């Protein structure tokens, strides 16, 4: 059995004591964390294949909320099983067929409605990791309600012109050593965005970083990677602050 080529070492995840709470929004469960003061700005976080309960993603939700945003991570898998590190890599393609990151429009609308009507949000951004990075790329082409997006190491899907006509500012974060995304694909993305994209965008590749690097919790970071992880997070927050 081949080792999972794209998953960072999920190892023994230390228990993370979350700062937020779980809510039910129509048919979706979601994890929400609010800052300590009132704000009308919100960020949707799109989880990776490990789903909305994974400690690393909740850590990111809390981190963004700490910067002054109502932050929410809905269960985009709608109650179905997330991928587990014990699952067999050979089954991944089949699993992906039932978990298509470009079929998230309905869930995004449900969450946008909740943020606007229940939380008083007026400006809403989105950030997604891996599977979620693909979902963000898709949503930034389709949903004008999202003021800005950050796609972190989402595989670059389908080479067609409509993949590049982003509606609002989008930042693409990649690791240089990512098994799933070649530097060639990143250069092509950059080239096409130059050609077709009418809004602000940015692409940045972080030296020596593997897939999944930006969501590690402090105790799981290797000292050599720490500066890049922290830089990627700061860059993500700065992009959100600039546009949301």
UniProtKB/TrEMBL annotation:
Predominant cellular place of this UniProt entry's protein: cytoplasm
Residues annotated as domain Dienelactone hydrolase: 29-242
GO cellular component terms attached to this protein's record: cytosol
Localization (cell): Cytoplasm, Cytosol
One Pfam family, short name: DLH
Superkingdom of the organism of origin: Eukaryota
InterPro entries, per the entry: AB_hydrolase_fold, CMBL, Dienelactn_hydro
A single MF term (Gene Ontology): hydrolase activity
Family listed: Belongs to the dienelactone hydrolase family.
Protein name: Carboxymethylenebutenolidase homolog
